[in-house]
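Think of the structure tokens as a kind of shorthand, similar to the way a musician reads notation: each symbol stands for something richer, in this case the local conformation of the backbone. In the example below we present two proteins back to back. Begin with the first one, reading the sequence and then the tokens, and try to describe in your own words what changes along the chain.
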Amino acid sequence: MRGRPKIVRLVSEEPKFKVFKPQGIPISELDKVNLTVEELEALKLVDYLDLTQEEAAKLMGISRRTLWNLLTAARKKIVDALLHGKVIYIEGGHYKIRECGECFRYRFRHGKHCREGIE
């Protein structure tokens, strides 16, 4: 194996919805875009929950550079799917579910991201 081993990225939960597609066209007729679970987590933390990239990276157990790469890839995939009418599958990646104690400080500020649901 070449290079450094990939660090497992921490995510709060498995996605509830895993497929999004344009209305009225069968999936079999559409091209596919694959969004990984950790790319979705990065988007959620930064774009939805308004955490800084530093906070989000720390919460996911990765560097800010890695978080930036996840965000860039995820945004590009989503825009491609929206512009070109592609199916978005949310699957795969290199992640594990974060234990609730690992996000203790962030729950009280942004409770809605924690799977414990503390608001």
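Once you have a description of the first chain, move to the second and do the same.
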Amino acid sequence: MQDFYPSRYASTPEMRPRLDPVLYSRWNDEAPISAQQAQQFDQDGYLILENLFSDEEIAFLQDSAHQLLASPSTLNAATIVTEPQSDEIRSIFDIHTQNPVMARLASDARLADVARFLLNDDVYIHQSRLNYKPGFKGREFYWHSDFETWHVEDGMPRMRALSMSLLLAENTPHNGPLMLIPGSHRRYLTCVGETPDDHYLHSLKKQEYGVPDAQSLGDLAQEHGIIAPLGKPGTVILFDCNLMHGSNGNITPFPRANAFLVYNAISNQLEQPFGTEKPRPWFLAQRGMPDPISIQRGPIRETVAA
């Protein structure tokens, strides 16, 4: 396959144009978001969706997240990533296959219908995870474009995917909220450095390859600014696969927990990685011929699989 977005091959970074649409659908009266929201996503690369779930649903989802964190022995050990300098859990991957409540969340029409509209295709879950920043010990997630990694290390061919981060704890200015550079999704920043074998074993704790250079990040931030969407539990932050984002560490006593769901278009399923010989493992990237999500409607607690 032709590599439309080469990266990690040159000694200097490049700012390349995006070759794919951002908004794949034309807005209409039956769309699950407003015309203004569709325009904002196209322009800025992100959306904030509020009041999608009831208080009872949020409490149910929070309880499920607590169960994941409290019972690591019941999970596949490969899917658990700890902090670089402690045994505190940093991320749990593949949560939609390890927890029936998270599976139900991933298929919920309030999320999946929006993804299908924005991508104009049936969708499947490319990756899911619970990101947790414990109080005092939660380390930063450095600036990055998800697509650069998904393309180089997983084989995602085109920019036809998006992430939804469901806040499961209040995100404040102080506990390491997600930071975004709006508009940065319109260009593709290549990275420097050949990818080592089994890079994921280190990058999930602290990424050293596939990291944008400081000069280019500075240029993007000067041009577009940086925002840090805040919100109460239940807020959904939706962003394009190529949007530059990151977060600071958490030195407050207040933990931060977010459920991440990555929706990819069925037509954009993975191929051989474009920058490595060996693909990353199953829990980081759904390979093969995935089935589209079967959309579910109604309150999560009442319709979750037993």
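Compare your description with these statements about the second chain. The mean pLDDT is 91.
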